[in-house]
Amino acid sequence: MFSLTRQVRFPGALLWCLLWVLPGHASQVVVNVEGDYPALEDNAEVFIGEVEGRSADNLRRYVGTAKKQVQEALKALGYYSPLIEWEVAEGEGEDGLAQLTITVIPGEPVRIASREVVIEGPAAEDDSFQGGIPKSPSKGDVLNHGEYTTLRQSIQNRARVLGYFDGEFVSRKLEVDPEKRTAAITIRFRSGERYRLGDVTFTEGHGFEDSLLEQFVTFDPGQPYHADEIARLSGHLSNSGYFSGVDVDASPGSARDRVIPVTVNLTTRPPRSVAAGVGFSTDVGPRFRGNWREHWINPMGHRRGVETELSGPRQNISTWYELPLDPPMTDSIRLGAGYQREDIEDVESERLTLGQQWQHQLDSGWMQVASLSWEGERFRIGDDERGQSSLLLPGVSYSKLHANSPLDPSRGYRVQFDVKGGHREVLSDVDVLHVNFLVRGLYTLADNHRFLARFQAGGVATNRFDDVPPSLRFFAGGDQSVRGYGYETLSPEDEDGVAVGGRYLMVGSVEYQYEFIQNWRVAAFVDEGNAIDDVFDPLATGAGVGIRWVSPVGPLRLDIAKGLDDEFGGEWRVHFSMGPEL
C-alpha cells in the first residue's frame, strides 16, 4: 500500500480541460482501449501528446516511455492494473510513416472504500459551508484523482468565499491499495473564526453625496463576510450608470480583529452620451432610434434624457427626468413628457403625454410601477370618425422577469399586469378602465429542444366606447401578436370595413425551436388571437416556420407564416423581428 498526501500527481480536472484543446490523437501513436472506455482512451492520448517524425526503430525505443504515460493516464482515472500490449507497423510508400499501436485492457478499477471529510471549528455548524462540499467522490465510486482534487479545492474555495481566511487542512490523504483495488479519502479541515465585514468607505473625488452611495450597500457592518456581498456592491455601482470604473477592496490582510474594512474607489463616467441606431421589422419597416442622456447632473444622482423613434407608421419623441430613491438600484421617480404620431392601417392619431412614474421593487421580487399621467389625443378612424380626448389616468403595473441569462436564456418566464383608468369627474372626457395581462414562458429540454409559450389578454370597461381613443383600444396581428396577418389588422370593423379597435384582446402562441448549430435554431409555431368586442367572438389562427440566430446583440427572428382564416385577411407573410424572447 502507498499513500499520496498533500499533493496529487494526477491533475485530472486539468487533463479534462486539455482534452478540448489538444488534437484527438497523436499522428504516429494510436491508443486502443478494449471495451467501452472513451474517457480512458482520450486521457491516454492526452498524456502521450504529439509524436511526429519518428522512424520505426525510434518508435520501438519510445515504447517504454509511452507505456509509462499510458499507465499514468489510467491511474488518474482509477485503473491501476492495466494490461498493455504494443505493435509498431512500418510505413508504406515514399512518404509513409511508421505507427505505434498501443492496446490496453484496463482491468478492474480502484474504488473508494471509505470517505472521511471532517470540518472542525465554527464552519462545522455553518450550513452554507457544509452545503458547498461536493458529494463525490463517494464510497463505491471509481477513483478519479481529478474529483479528489476538486473536493479539496472546493473546501478551500468555500472557506475563502465565506470568510474563513484562517482555515487550514489538518490532514488530507488519498491512500490507494492497488492490490485490493481500494482507496481511502481522509480530509480534516480546521476553519478558524469567520471574518466580518466592516464599514464601507468611499474615497474622495467621485463627485456624489455619500448618502447616495451608501444606499448601494446591501450589508451592515459586523455582518459575516461573504464574497457575494462584495461582488454585489461592485455590480450595483457598475450598473448604476454613474461610473466608468469601480474598485472594491476588501482584502483580509487589512483586517483588524477579523473585521475587514471595505474601501471603494470610483471613477466617474463622462456625464453625457449620445446614441443612435437603425433597425427593421416587418410591422413598422425601417426605423431610426436616437437618445441623448445626461447620466448625472448633480451630486444627488439625478439624470435626464431625450429619446426618439422614427419609422413610416410611427414617430415619437419623449423627454424624462429621474430621481433615484432608496435603494437606487431598483427604486426611482421619473417625470416625463412625450409626443407620438401614428398612422397604421385605418387609424391615425396624435398623442401628447405628461406624467410621472414611481418604480419600486417589492421584497418578493415583483416590480411595482405607480403612475399618474395626462394624455391628450386627437384621432381619426377611417374617413369619417374623428375625435379627441383628454384623460387623467392613474395606474399601476406589476411585473416579474426570471431568466437564467439576460441575452439568450434557456429557461425562464415573464409576467406583467397593467391597469389604469379615468373618470369624468376627475379631468377626463370618458369613464374608462383599461386592463392588460401578459405572460411568457420558456423551457429547454436536453439542451437543443426549446419550448416557448405566450398568452396576452386585455379589456376595456367604459360606458361610451366611441369616445375611447385608439391608444386605449385593442388591435392584434403582426410580428409579436398573431403571425400570418398584417400589423394591427385584426380588429372589429364598422359597416364600411374599417378596423376600429376592440374592447377585448386575446392572443396565445406556442413555439418549438431546435438548435441544429450553435446559436442557430429552426422554429415551428402556431398563433391564435384577435381583438374583439365579445369574448365569444371567433379568433384568427396563424402557423408557420422560421429560423433564429442568436447575434451578439440579441436574437434575430425570420418567420414565414400563413394566416389560416381568409375572412380575417390571412395570407402568406414574412415576419422579421429582433429582441429578447422573454
Keywords:
mainly beta; four-stranded mixed β-sheet; disordered N terminus
Give a written overview of the molecule.
- The structure is a single chain.
- It contains 7 helices and 26 strands.
- It has helices at residues 12-18, 38-48, 56-76, 127-130, 145-162, 210-213, 227-239, and strands at 2-5, 29-33, 83-89, 99-105, 111-120, 168-177, 182-190, 196-202, 243-249, 259-268, 272-281, 285-294, 303-311, 314-324, 332-344, 347-361, 367-381, 385-403, 412-422, 432-445, 449-462, 504-517, 520-532, 540-551, 554-563, 572-578.
- The protein has a 16-stranded antiparallel beta sheet with strand order 11-12-13-14-15-16-17-18-19-20-21-22-23-24-25-26, with no helix packed on it. It has a 4-stranded mixed beta sheet with strand order 1-6-7-5, covered by helices on one side.
- A hairpin with a 3-residue loop joins β20 (432-445) and β21.
- α1 (12-18) packs across α5 and α2 crosses α3.
- The protein starts with a strand and ends with a strand.
Brief rundown of the structure:
This protein is mainly beta and about 575 residues long. The chain has helices at about 10-20, 40-50, 55-75, 125-130, 145-160, 210-215, 225-240, and strands spanning about 1-5, 30-35, 85-90, 100-105, 110-120, 170-175, 180-190, 195-200, 245-250, 260-270, 270-280, 285-295, 305-310, 315-325, 330-345, 345-360, 365-380, 385-405, 410-420, 430-445, 450-460, 505-515, 520-530, 540-550, 555-565, 570-580.
